[in-house]
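Below is the data:
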Amino acid sequence: MKVNNSDSIDFSIVIPVRNDSQRLDRCLSSLKLQRGRSELIVIDNASQDDSVTVATKCGATVLVYPDIRVGALRNRGTEVSTGRILAFVDSDHEVKEDWLEKAAEVLDSDSRILATGAFCLPPEDGTWVQTVWAIHRLRGPDRCEVDWLGSGNLFVRREAFERIGGFREDLIAAEDVDLCHRLRQLGGIIVCDKRIRNIHHGEPATLLAFIRKEYWRGSSGVKAWISQGFPLRDLPSLLWPLWHLVGGFVLAAIVIVAIVYMDTTWRTIAAIAMLAWLLPAILLSVRTCIVERRIASIPALAVLYFAYGLARAAALFR
């Protein structure tokens, strides 16, 4: 990475945290190993543990803002930053030693690229939920243009970030999806490059935790979609939970009728309805696992796709 000329990229690394001192320490330790010019900015959301102390000892600029949402936390961090590139990472992440270097290479390669990053890696000792869901999250080519990237591993050109006004502060979740949508409206592109390696230690470890997390992540999905002008390219992500919602109600009605009438025909209809309800998750799992050459993971990924649909369906009522 070029660091000694006018074309070099300076990074402001913005890290929101709340009661996560141990993982923050690991995150900051990995960031201190980065090559290139950078600054660390930690925005604490009124932690009751040692998060502020950990950040201060690491030499980070520390801001404390209680009772505001994560988009607002990141915005407060960018307001005191000085770098030309804003790098966003969360406290429960750990980056590889060439994290900044690889991001710089992508951004230097094309001025049309307004943001880059990658979908995060699971922990090396991850549970079946973490490792199987990574098949879905990490599918596709090593480098490609994407619609959005998560804010736990995201680099944005400052000029573009300021032009769109930063993160929306009224969204509970999906603020990164919304940000990327508005960046694309500027005419720029967003590039995912798997060389920008980032481990997410906070990925849900159990099926119940996965459902809870996707319920939270889906809480602002419809609101963001409406505010963006109903983009058709995002419609599939809304149809998936709607299918699980409507299918669940229809199946429940059929089962009730079958129980009331004790009729063989209705029992058969109920079985067919159950299969139809499950079929999209099964087919999507088969397709993903064949493409990624992970055939043995088809049943487990189908379970996660179905659980994802149920969680996102419930989030429609949040």
